[in-house]
Amino acid sequence: MRAIVLEKLYDWSKIPYQKFLKKNNAWNIQIATLLDYPKGTLGNSLGIFITKHNFELQAKLESHDVFHVLTNTGITVPEEISMQFYLLGNGKRSLYLFSVVFLGLLLYPDYFKVFKKAYYKGGKALQFHQLNFLRMLHLPVQKIKTTFLIS
Asked: Which of 137, 139, 145, 143 is nearest to 62 (CA)?
């Protein structure tokens, strides 16, 4: 039930968030183009992630899926919340992030230790949440993870 609540809140908030709060430009790239990048690159890995989970690229929200790829975070609701804690630890600040963190703690108090661990892991990594990932699609994922100490 709690997962359904968060998923509905996400569905209701996604379009206003994209339209009014996200100031970056959409990438305007196709999944097939991502899959054409060499194996092991961020572009190819992102394309595989999106295809594997039967997702579509969300305009202006492309970095969210990059965070999944770089942090090896799954797509369950607790994993999504955990990734937001990781990003909070990494220095990311946004209304969306604070909302997810607050609601995550409220609805998933049994995952507190998991969230806390993710927060500290994010704090140990060099700040990467603000990078222009569109310009990094050609880079090997492992090089990005090593450079920014992403575990």
From this structure: 137
More confidently predicted of 151 and 132: 132
pLDDT per residue as tens digits for the range 36-94: 999 999 999 999 999 999 999 988 889 999 999 999 999 999 999 999 999 999 999 98
Range of the domain at 135: 2-147
Q: What backbone torsions phi and psi does residue 139 show, to the nearest 5 degrees?
A: -85, 145
Q: CA-CA distance, 14 to 67, in Å (whole number)?
A: 17
Distance of CA 38 to the CA centre of its chain: 22
Q: How many structural domains does the chain have?
A: 1
For the purposes of burial, counting CB atoms within 10 Å of the CB of 44, is it exposed (0-12), middle (13-18) or buried (19 or more)? buried
Give buried/exposed letters for 96-127 (b at 16+ CB in 10 A, else e): bbebbbebbeebbeebeeebeebbebbeebee
CA 37 – CA 42 distance, rounded (Å):
8
DSSP string across 73-123: --SSHHHHHHHHHHHHHTT---HHHHHHHHHHHHH-GGGHHHHHHHHHHHH
